[in-house]
Amino acid sequence: MATAAGATYFQRGSLFWFTVITLSFGYYTWVVFWPQSIPYQNLGPLGPFTQYLVDHHHTLLCNGYWLAWLIHVGESLYAIVLCKHKGITSGRAQLLWFLQTFFFGIASLTILIAYKRKRQKQT
After folding, report:
1. pLDDT over threshold 70, residue 1
2. First-residue to last-residue Cα distance in the chain
3. Any transmembrane segments, and where?
């Protein structure tokens, strides 16, 4: 049986990775939905590369965008299953894991995967 602390276990992920993921997904969203508003010439080497992708592979970018969100949904659902398997029974903790994994994907899920619940010794 899980301890009370284990049943409510939640750990926020790394601010570094959350920032990287947020900026990357934000840029990806901008590229997919508003490519005409991107100042390609001001982005250094990223500008011409992004413009090439938009001009020649926009359908692939769109499909990849929705696939990335679909993967995040799958990771989030797996996080719920993993919570139950690891003895995290608190609805609030499970919701936090679901949301964090939905928005930040593998950066969150790896924390949950690494979690080892402490087993109580039977006397």
Report:
1. no
2. 14
3. 15-35, 61-81, 95-115
